[in-house]
Design goal:
With 340 residues, the chain is an alpha/beta fold. The chain is built from twelve helices and eleven strands.
C-alpha cells in the first residue's frame, strides 16, 4: 500500500494542499470546520508529513530543547518535560532533552550548548532552574541567537519567563499555620540566589504582616546550599530556648531534614512542631507523618513554556497572556493546632 500524500489529504478533506499545510503548521486563520476536516482526513489516511521537506521549506528544525540540571529524584525537571512533550505532540514538534550534571562548570555547559546549536539547528530552548540563573549559560544561548523561554528566573528582562505564583503559595502555607494558632513560625531556606527562594520568603513575610505578626530574625535561616549547612541551620533553629512551634521550609527536601533533626531532639510532629514544605515532591510521601506542602502546577509550566516558545517566538503568532499558575495547599498530617 502506497503512502498517502498531502494531495490525498487535500482531496479527502475537499481543500487545497496549501490549506492542509497551514493546518499541519498550526497556522492561525483556518476555520474550525476546515481544520477538523483536514485532521479527520489525516487520521483516516494515516498521513505522515515529510518532515525533511517541511524543514527545508520553512528553515526550521521542528525541534526544541529542554535544558536542566539532573540529580537523583529530580521530579521538577520530569514534570517540566512531561508538559513540554504534550505541547510538542500537539504542535508537531520534537523535544531534545539535555540534562547536565550539577558539577559541570558553567563555562563547560556554555561550550556544549554552542556545539548543540551548531549540530542540531534547534529552534529554541526551555531553560529550567537553576540553569536559567546562570548568566554564562544564558549569554551563550543569546550569542547563538536561539530563542529561549526561562522558567522561574529572577531575571525576566532579557527573554520570556514563566513561573507559578510562588509568593501566594508560600503565603498559603504560612497562613495555614497561623490559622492553627501558631505565631512562632520559622522559615528554612537554602535557595538563596534562586527566584524560588526569594518568592517563598516574600510569601512568608506577607503572611506574617497580614496577621500582624512580627518577623523574628532568630527564626529565619537563609543560606546558599552547602554540605552540612542545611542540617546545621535546622539544628540551630530547633535548639533555641525560645524555638519556633512551626516551620515553613522552602522545599520538601528541607522538610525531610527537619523531620530527622526533630526526631533526634525528641520533638513530635505535629504535636511539638508543625512542618509545612513546598513542591509536593513524591519523595515526601515517604515521610511520617505525611507532609503538608504546597503543590505547584509544574507540568503546566512546561506545557505553557513549550507553547509560547513554538507559537509566539518561533512562529510569531499572536501573543496570548497566560496567568500566573496558582499553587495549592495540600494538607496532610505534619501540621496541627498549637498545644499550650
Amino acid at each position: 500500500m502506497s503512502k498517502a500524500t498531502i494531495g490525498d489529504v487535500a482531496k479527502a478533506a475537499g481543500v487545497s494542499k496549501k490549506t492542509v499545510s497551514r493546518v499541519l503548521n498550526n497556522e492561525p486563520g483556518v476555520r474550525k470546520e476546515t481544520r477538523d476536516a483536514v485532521t479527520t482526513a489525516i487520521k483516516k489516511l494515516d498521513y505522515i508529513p515529510n518532515l525533511n521537506a517541511r524543514r527545508l521549506r520553512t528553515n526550521q528544525s521542528y525541534l526544541i530543547g529542554v535544558l536542566y540540571i539532573d540529580y537523583p529524584t529530580n521530579f521538577y525537571g520530569s514534570l517540566i518535560l512531561n508538559g513540554a512533550i504534550k505541547a510538542c505532540d500537539k504542535l508537531g514538534y520534537d523535544l531534545l532533552i539535555r540534562p547536565f550534571a550539577s558539577e559541570n562548570p558553567a563555562g563547560e555547559i556554555a561550550t556544549t550548548l554552542r556545539h548543540m546549536v551548531e549540530r542540531s539547528n534547534v529552534d529554541g530552548f526551555i531553560v529550567v532552574p537553576p540553569l536559567c540563573e546562570d548568566q554564562a549559560v544564558i549569554a551563550a544561548l543569546e550569542e547563538t541567537g536561539t530563542p529561549i523561554v526561562k522558567i522561574a528566573s529572577l531575571d525576566d528582562t532579557s527573554s520570556y519567563c514563566l513561573h507559578s505564583d510562588e509568593v501566594e503559595g508560600a503565603q498559603l502555607a504560612v497562613e495555614h499555620l497561623i490559622n492553627l494558632g501558631h505565631s512562632k513560625i520559622g522559615f528554612l531556606n537554602y535557595l538563596v540566589g534562586h527566584a524560588a527562594g526569594k518568592w517563598r520568603y516574600e510569601g512568608y513575610q506577607q503572611a506574617l504582616t497580614k496577621y500582624g505578626i512580627e518577623e523574628n530574625p532568630d527564626w529565619v535561616a537563609q543560606f546558599v546550599y552547602g554540605e552540612n549547612t542545611l542540617e546545621q541551620a535546622c539544628r540551630k533553629l530547633l535548639c533555641q530556648e525560645n524555638r519556633p512551634t512551626a516551620i515553613f521550609t522552602a522545599n520538601d527536601a528541607s522538610a525531610a531534614v527537619v523531620y530527622r533533626i526533630a526526631s533526634q531532639l525528641k520533638l513530635r510532629i505535629p504535636y511539638d512542631l508543625s512542618v509545612v514544605g513546598f513542591d509536593d515532591d513524591p519523595a515526601a510521601l515517604n515521610l511520617w507523618p505525611p507532609l503538608t506542602t504546597i503543590k505547584q502546577p509544574v507540568a503546566e509550566l512546561g506545557y505553557n513554556a513549550a507553547t509560547i516558545l513554538i507559537e509566539q517566538i518561533i512562529r510569531h503568532q499572536a501573543k496570548r497572556e497566560l496567568p500566573l499558575s496558582p499553587s495549592e495547599l495540600v494538607v496532610r498530617n505534619s501540621t496541627g493546632p498549637l498545644l499550650e
